[in-house]
Amino acid sequence: VCHFFPPLVLERRYPKEVQDLYETMRRFARILGPVEHDKFIESHALEFELRREIKRLQEYRAAGITNFCSARTYDHLKKTREEERLKRTMLSEVLQYIQDSSACQQWLSRQADLDSGLSPTVPVPSNSGRRSAPPLNLTGLPGTEKLNEKEKEV
Predict the structure, then answer these.
(1) Which pLDDT value is given to residue 152?
(2) Which GO CC terms are listed, alphabetically (predicted)?
């Protein structure tokens, strides 16, 4: 029984959804009393865990799994598929830079830096399809006569 533990203890004890309920219902704790309030929160935490387990079992059933040995295999294969999907995403990222050799070199050096534990040294240009902004027309603006050509270009 938690008897109004501070939120730091609650963070380690309950999932976020139950923590949100706890914060919402904390003002009613004086009405219920500490023991009843703790029972209320514990029952909702148990309900949350049961619902999560039911969803997991329903996923197994939808996949045609009927025993826990098959479920372990299914979970392992699911994890492997997710890892492979992430690798394919990374491959597609590489392929978008393959046509431009300088961008490819920048990407490769960034990956080498990441692999060695360093922060990337060269930012990779974004290929979001967005055009760069046209240069500003500074003619007639006050103070532009004080700028040299390089400053106007910037």
Answers:
(1) 73
(2) nucleus; SAGA-type complex
* Residues in Cβ contact with 6 at an 8 Å cutoff, skipping those fewer than 6 apart: none
Nearest alpha-carbon partner for 48 in 9, 75, 12, 21: 21
| Per-residue pLDDT at 72 | 92
Cβ(3)–Cβ(39) below 8 Å: no
List CB contacts of 1: < 8 A, sequence separation 6 or more: 34, 35, 38, 39
- Look up residue 135 and give its DSSP letter: P
Find the radius of gyration of the CA atoms of the chain. 29
At 105-144, the pLDDT tens digits run: 777 787 778 777 665 544 545 555 555 666 667 676 777 7
Angstrom distances, CA of residue 77 to CA of 45, 52, 68, 84, 122: 30, 20, 14, 10, 37
Cβ atoms within 10 Å of 81's Cβ, excluding its own: 10
User: Could you tell me the two tokens for 120?
Assistant: 């990337």
Handedness of CA 133, 138, 142, 146 (dihedral sign): positive
